[in-house]
Amino acid sequence: MRWLSRLLVIFVICFVAIAPPTTPTQAADGASITLSPSSGIPGTDVTVYGYNFTANKWVDIYYYLDVTDDTWVAEVKADSDGDFQVDFTIPENYKGPHTVLAVDQEDKSASMNFNVKPGLTVSPEEGPVGTNVTVEGRGFAEDEEDIELRYYLDGNYETVAENITADEDGRWEKSFLIPPSAKGNHKIDARGDESSLAQVKDATFEATPGIGIIDESSGSAIDEPSGSVGESIMMTGSGFAANERDISILFAGEEVEMEIIRADAAGYWEESFEVPEMPIGTYSVTAEGEQTRQGDINALSFEIEPGIVLSPNEGHVGTNMTVAGRGFAANKNVVIKYEGNQKATATTDNKGSFDVSFIVPESQHGGRLVTAGDAAGNNATAIFTLESDPPPIPTLSSPPDGDRVGFIGRVRPTFQWSEVFDDSGVYYSLQIATSDNVTASGFADPVVSVTDIVGTNYTLEKTLSYGTYYWIVQAVDGAANAGNWTAAYSFRAGLLPLWAFILIIVAIVVAIGALVYFLVMRRRIYY
To answer: How far apart are CA 18 and CA 28, in angstroms?
Structure first.
C-alpha cells in the first residue's frame, strides 16, 4: 500500500501547484502544514508548522524546484500530538509557486505552496560614494531577459546596468559604483521582461559621508596621499547631506584656513587647501559640517614630506638665494648643498621649518641642484635655474687692425679691448692665429689660446716671430655662457725678420770698415 501513498503525494503536489499559493492543503489522513512566510525571494528563512502527523515520528521536508525535481531541506521529529515546527531556507529558484512537502515515517504527508518572488540583495549595504557594490537578483523568471537595474536619487533614478539576463534559476548578478548621492538610504530596484518594478523586492544602500584626495591633473583618487607644507591639495567630499553648509576640513584635528564649503544637492563638494606647517609625519585628515560629524567619516592618513622652496628659484651668479625648508624633523641641524658642495647650515624649529640664505657661486648655466638634509636623515631637493644669456661682444682696440708691432720679430705685444658687463661676472678668452678663419669655437688653428683673463688687456708671455697675425676676443660669464667671438684684427710682428736685420747690420759694419780703411790708407799715401 506504500505505493498508493506515494501516488497520493504526487496527486497532492499537482493539486497544490495549481491551487492558490497561500492555501495549505490537508491530506486525506488529516495531516497539514502552514508556512511562515508563504512568499519571498530565494534565501528567505521559512518556518514550517506541521499538524496531525504520526506521533513521535521523524518528518522529512522537501522543496520542489519543479513538479518532479525535489530537494530535501530539513527533518524534524513530531511531538506526542503529531505536531512539529522546523526552519529551512528557500533554495535558488525562479519565480512562481513551488511546493513544500512534509512526509513522515508512516507516509503521512501534507504540502503547501511557497510563492517565489523576484528580489534584490546588495553587498555591501552601506558606504561612501564610489563604493563598488554587487547587486544580486534572485527569484526572477527562468532565463528572463532585458533586466534593467536602477539606483534612485531623491525621487529620480539612474540606470546603472541594463540588458541583464537571468540564469535558469532566475538568478543574476551585477556590480556598479555608487554614483554621487546625498547622505541616507537610496533604493535599488530592477525590472525585466517578466518582472515589473512593483513585483521586485527592492534593496537599499545607505550612502555614508566620505572624503578623498584627488590628483588635480588626472582627477583620479590618491590612495596614499602625501605632500609638502604649503602644497595645494584637492579634497572631495561625498555622501554629505543635500546642500549641507558650514563644511570645514580638519588637519590633525585643527581646522585649516579656507572658505567655508557647501555641498551640492547630491551631497558632493570639492575644495583645495594648503598643507599646514608641521614636522614630517603622518596626520589625520577629515571633515565635518552642519549635519555631518567627524565620527561619521573614515579619516584619511596624510603624510607630510620634507620640502624646500628657493627664493628666487632662478638668477645669475652672485644671487642671494634663500632656502625655505618645511616638513623636516623638529629641532634638528640641517646642511644645505649646492651641486654637492656645502654652502650653508641651519637648525629647524619645533615645526620642522628653517630659512637660510647663501650666494650662488660660479657654476654651469642651466638647472643646478640644491639639497637640504637634516640630522634625522630627511632630505629634500630643488632646482635653481642659472641664467643662460651670453655676455655681449667686446670691441678690439689695440693693436689696431693692420698695425705693426715692434721692429724685428720675436715681439710680445699687449692686447686691449673694451669692457663688457654681465650679472654673472665676465672673463675673457684671447686667440691668435696666422689665418683669419674664424669658426663658432674660435680660430681653426690658433697659435695662442688664453682663457679666464681677468680685465681688458693681456700681454703675451711668449714672443711672436716676424709675420702677419690675427687676433680675436670672446667674453664668457661666470655661468659659463660664452658670447660670440669678435671679428678678427690683423697685425704685423716686426718690420724685418731677424736674419734680414742681422744682414743689414753686417753690411753696415763692412761698409763702415771699408770707409775707414779707405780714408786711413789714403792719408798715409798722401804723407
So the answer is: 18
Count, residues in the chain: 527
Interatomic CA distance for residues 442 and 476, integer angstroms: 13
pTM, entire model = 0.68
For 190, other C-beta atoms within 10 Å of its C-beta total: 27
**Chain segment 346-389, per-residue pLDDT in tens:** 999 999 999 999 999 999 999 999 999 999 999 999 999 999 99
Q: Phi-psi bin for 521: left (phi > 0), alpha (psi -120 to 50), beta?
A: alpha
The residue written with cell numbers 763692412 in the block is 510
Handedness of CA 504, 463, 456, 474 (dihedral sign): positive
391-411 per-position pLDDT tens digit: 999 999 999 999 999 876 678
Give the C-alpha separation, 390 to 402, whole Å: 29
Q: Contact 323/395 with Cβ under 8 angstroms?
A: no
State the pairing for strand pair 489-493/403-405.
parallel
The cell numbers describing 443, all together, are: 680660430
Q: How many Å apart are CA 21 and CA 15, to the nearest integer? A: 11
Residue 61 CA to residue 43 CA, distance in Å, equals 16
C-alpha cell belonging to residue 91: 533554495
Rounded distance between C-alpha atoms, residue 138 and residue 493, angstroms: 108
Q: Where are the alpha helices (DSSP H) in 260-325?
A: none
Using DSSP, state whether 107 is helix, strand or coil. Answer: coil
User: DSSP 3-state assignment of 296?
Assistant: helix
Specify the amino acid at residue 384.
Answer: F
Alpha-carbon distance of 208 to 240, in angstroms, equals 7
In angstroms, the CA 495 to CA 507 distance is: 18
CA 400 to chain centre: 64
